Amino acid sequence: MRYYSYYPGCCSRGTGLGYTLSIEAISRPLEMELVELEDWNCCGSTPSISIDELAAICIGTRNLALAEKAGLDLVASCSCCYTTLNRVNHYLQLYPELKEKVDQVLAEVGLEYHGKVRVRHLLEVSLNDVTFEVIESKVVNSLKGLRVAPYYGCQLVRPDLGFDHPEFPQSLDRLIASLGAEPTPFTLKSRCCGGSLTIPMLATALPLLHQLLDSAQSGGAQCIVAACPLCQTNLDAYQAMVNRKYKTKYNLPVLYFTQLIGMALGIESEALGLDTAIVSPESILARR
Amino acid sequence: MNKQELMARVNEDGFLDEVCSMPGAECVRWCMQCGMCSASCPNVSRMEYSPRKMIALIRAGKRYEVLSSNSMWVCASCYLCTVRCPKDVKPTELMHTLECLALRHGLVNRKTSVPAMYRTFFDSIRKNGRVCEFNVMARYYLKTNPIAALKMLPLALKLLSHRRLHLRSQKIEGIEQLRAIIDKARALGGAE
Asked: Sign of torsion, CA B48 B54 B60 B61?
């Protein structure tokens, strides 16, 4: 059994419920013990970086200070949390004058952070610690014949944190193949879904989503797999809106990679939260 | 006029220095204006000035034009410009810096509602420690455009019926600690 501190992020009990449930369901069979970071707060995300840089770094550092006490690697499942918390680590290392201010702020509330926490993404942990070979060996329900578009999005692979290529990543492709399914060609697999701009700038985000769905569909995919709750929600919940605006008929279920792993491990769809998907995955579940 | 005199003149109110003093934005000085950032940006067509042009304007000391533009608010933080830049300039981080500066100097673009959304999000962190998505969306739409809220209702209901909208905020135990951190940081960083 491998032990990690786990950072669920604010989407975990809301829009990202399916992700959370499936992570809970697969962590035991994959011999990961994900211990939820006690009393974590929001990572700060892009909005706070855009409001107040110093406050944003301090908000993130509180989580890292808590994780440092626990002494384990901190695993995030949301790509945005992953990038934001890594950015905090990076900035504290790169800018000593910023670090000084952050230390001063934390000292006021009796916290300290020494920069020792490694922030990792769940997909990277699955790739490097669990390994896809081990996942493959545990497959009892091969997904043979299922054509899956691997969607990486932005903040999983950019800015370049080194575990996969920032523009032409391969890890999800390999994971899909190790489950017996077929990764489809997906030209825009690491292009932007619009992120949080779907709320204040829907007209800007919809064309991006349209392009992504078009690219996935033209590669022959029957479903899309994502590794971030924001990507999943944008592609899934806004798909009907894209269809209305562009007079298209996309009907592409968008699953989390953890749900796909769970399906191959033979875990019940209820435990994987497959019912939380808005574009129903019935079609791919039924044909199997 | 020699180069030094020229630089002193365009930077007379210190805008270039102010931008470059912010972490992540010092790279403005070594941009070579190749335009890779603008060519890579998924949202460039919605920006008043492309990322390359923004950098040129900063170097020309155009405080008002830069800080009151909509460009940085349209950035989706996809970091494609950042990984492609041949000179290791970090346009994404620069955009974040410009957002903070625009707020600090009261020059926020009035046509975009992105700052209102970001503020609502940030306030939600200060209030509860974690962000309740439903709460942020509802408050943002009511504040900016209640009619748009009606249009979003079907989507909200779909999320709700799939158990994906938590209606109640979740407050962390250390909320007083987090608030003290935020307030202290804001005072130290010279926020408004």
From this structure: positive
